[in-house]
């Protein structure tokens, strides 16, 4: 997943949340940042322009570096500790990438994936017929390892019973958003394909027989 979309105002260029400024680092105006983008090397490249949430204020990257897996940046005009401390909590936004360029680079925003139909991939490891509709992507969840696609299942699967005997159904599944499990995405046709391992999605395991 790339930067997180924050608003859809058609009158404004689409801005995506890139980072939140944290504590001052040293005395020369550097700050640590909490990163919300998969492209920090590009977003924090010297000369890159980031914006406030309304797009009115511009922040130009003067320099950037990493230290112990943390990004540290310096903005133009922020030259001492007082200035950097004043920026604490500021959220920085960047312009959205060109959709066609992203398509070629196999990059996606969460809003592009939500609503896509999830179909079984050809030659999937469970032996399920290719093209079978499993469900619809309803959310994209960030996790430390990778993003997860939350899929609302077409056919909820009974996974047990409550104490009173009421059946309990699994209505959604979480699918790691990695190439091996989600090999194809077709935005124009409105679907993606999945090749889940056994046990990941309730109700599919039996189809392998």
Task: Show the helix and strand layout.
Layout: E1 4-5, E2 15-25, E3 30-35, H1 40-43, E4 49-51, E5 58-67, E6 70-75, H2 81-86, E7 91-95, H3 99-104, H4 110-113, E8 117-120, E9 133-141, E10 148-161, E11 167-176, E12 184-186, E13 191-194
Parallel strand pairs: 8-13
Antiparallel strand pairs: 1-2, 2-3, 2-7, 3-6, 4-5, 5-6, 8-9, 9-10, 10-11, 12-13
Question: What report would you give on this structure?
Answer:
The protein is mostly beta strands and 209 residues long. It has 2 domains: 4-100, RimM (Elongation Factor Tu (Ef-tu), domain 3, Beta Barrel), CATH 2.40.30; 110-208, SH3 type barrels. Helix content is 10%, strand content 42%. It is built from 4 helices and 13 strands. It has helices at residues 40-43, 81-86, 99-104, 110-113; strands at residues 4-5, 15-25, 30-35, 49-51, 58-67, 70-75, 91-95, 117-120, 133-141, 148-161, 167-176, 184-186, 191-194. The strands form 2 sheets. Strands 1, 2, 3, 4, 5, 6 and 7 form a 7-stranded antiparallel beta sheet that branches. A 6-stranded mixed beta sheet has the order 11-10-9-8-13-12.
């Amino acid at each position: 997943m790339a930067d997180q979309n924050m608003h859809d105002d058609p009158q404004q260029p689409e801005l995506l949340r890139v980072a939140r400024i944290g504590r001052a680092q040293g005395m020369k105006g550097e700050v640590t940042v909490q990163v919300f983008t998969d492209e920090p090397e590009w977003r924090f490249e010297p000369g890159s322009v980031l914006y406030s949430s309304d797009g009115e204020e511009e922040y130009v990257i003067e320099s950037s570096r990493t230290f112990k897996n943390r990004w540290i940046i310096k903005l133009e005009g922020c030259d001492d500790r007082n200035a950097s401390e004043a920026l604490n909590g500021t959220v920085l936004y960047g312009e959205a990438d060109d959709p066609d360029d992203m398509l070629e680079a196999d990059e996606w925003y969460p809003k592009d994936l939500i609503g896509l139909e999830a179909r079984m991939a050809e030659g999937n490891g469970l032996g399920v017929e290719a093209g079978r509709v499993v469900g619809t992507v309803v959310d994209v969840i960030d996790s430390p390892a990778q993003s997860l696609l939350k899929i609302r299942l077409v056919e909820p699967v009974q996974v047990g019973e409550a104490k009173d005997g009421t059946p309990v159904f699994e209505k959604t599944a979480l699918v790691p958003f990695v190439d091996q499990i989600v090999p194809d995405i077709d935005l124009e046709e409105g679907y993606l394909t999945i090749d889940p391992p056994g046990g990941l999605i309730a109700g599919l395991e039996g189809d392998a027989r």
